[in-house]
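User: Run a structure prediction on this.
Assistant: Running it now.
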Amino acid sequence: MKFIADLHIHSRFSRATSRSLTPESLSLWGQKKGIKVIGTGDFTHPEWIHELKEKLEESETGLFTLKPEYQKEFEGEVPAGCTAETLFVLSGEISCIYKKNGKTRKVHNLILMPDFESAERFNADLDRIGNIKSDGRPILGLDSKILLEMMLEASDRGFFIPAHVWTPWFSLFGSKSGFDDIEECFEDLTPHIYALETGLSSDPPMNRLLSQLDKYLLVSNSDAHSASKLGREANIFNCAPDYDSMIKAMKEKEGFEGTIEFYPEEGKYHMDGHRKCNCMLHPNDTIKRNGICPECGKPVTVGVFHRVAELADREEPVLQKKFHSLIPLAEMLSEIIGTGPATKTVSTAYEKLLTELGPELDILLNLDLKDIESAGGILLSKAISRMRTGDVIKQEGYDGEYGVIKLFNESEKHELIGQKKLFKAAEIKPAKKKKAAVKKKSGTVKKKP
C-alpha cells in the first residue's frame, strides 16, 4: 500500500509552536493534506504524552488512532473527498549539547518508539539526566551516541534518525557545531543509524554528492510547528501501514519509494549570509571574504549549500530514490490571488479546491491538470505544471530568513488571467510593495580538491 508519512513534528509544548496543536487538529490537517501516518512529536514531554495516552489507542497496525470520542471534534471540517483514517507514531526530537573531541557539539536527533511503555522507560532515563518538562524538544547535555544507546536499551524496536543534518547551528553536519563524518559522532554505534533527515534547506541531489552517505536512506519531514505546515516535506512508503513494516522499509530501503521536498532554496539556511545586515553571500564570496559580513564585519552564518560543497566528493549526485519538489498549495494560491497565505481569501479558495479535488498532496503530485484547471482555473493549472517540472523563480533563504519560490512574473500572471480567472469571484490584486532588496553576491561554488 502506498501512503505518505510525516514523522517529525512538534506539539504545543515546544517553543514557538501553535497553541492549537492537539491530536485532533493533527488528524484534521493530516486528512486535508493526504497524510496517512503522522509523528506525534514531543513524546518526551510529560503533559503531552499524558494527553496522547488519553486520546490515542493502539490499532492493529502497531500505530495509534484517535479514540472515537475525539474524532468528532473536527468531523464537519474535513472536506468530503479528504476523509480518511489518520494513524500516529510516537516520535520526539531531542537537542544534545555536549563537548566532544575538543569542540562544543549541538545535534538534534529524532526518535521513533513502538509503544507507550518503551517511550515512558526512555523518558524516565532522560528525566534522571536533565529537564524534560520545560520544553517539548528537551535540551540535554548528552552525547548523541549515549542518547542512541539509551534508546536501544529502552526498546530494540526504537528508531534513531539524526535530524535536519545540515542545519548550521543544531545538526550532525552543521557548519557551526557539527561533525565532518557520522562515525565521529556515533563511533561503534554507527551501524544502528540507517536514515538521515535532510532538512528543509537541502534535497536528495545535494546529499548524494557525498559518497559517505550512500549507505543511508534519506528521509524528509515537515518539522511542523503548526498543523497547517504538515507535509511541506514528507515520505512516500509502499508497504503495510504498520510500525514494524515502516521501520523495516527504512532499514532495508525496500518499501520506501522516496520523498516530498521543499525547494531547498526556500529553506531558511540554504545560502550564507547575515540576516541583520540583509546580506546574502554565495559560498565563493564567503570564502573570498574569510567568512566575514561585508556590512558589519562580523562572521556570517555558513549555509547548507556551502557546507555540502565543503564535504562533497562527487561532481554529480548518485540518486537512489525518487523525490518531488513541491510548493504548498496555500503559497501557490497566495501568489495567484495576490494576498497573504494566511488570509481568509486564500483559506476559502484552499477549502474549495479540497472539496472539489481531494487532499492537497494529491492535487500537487498526481491530479490531471485538466481537472485542476476545471476547478481552479488556468493560473493554478499552469502553476502546478511549472512546479512539477521545476520551472520556478527562486530567491534563496539565508541565516534564518526563508527563501521565496515564485511561479510567475507579474506580466505573465495578468496575461493569463485575461484568459480565465482562478475562481469566478476572484480577482488578481496589484502586487504588494516588495521588501528591501537583499544584498546578494554571486559566484560559483568551489569544491574541495
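The first helix runs from residue 23 to 33.
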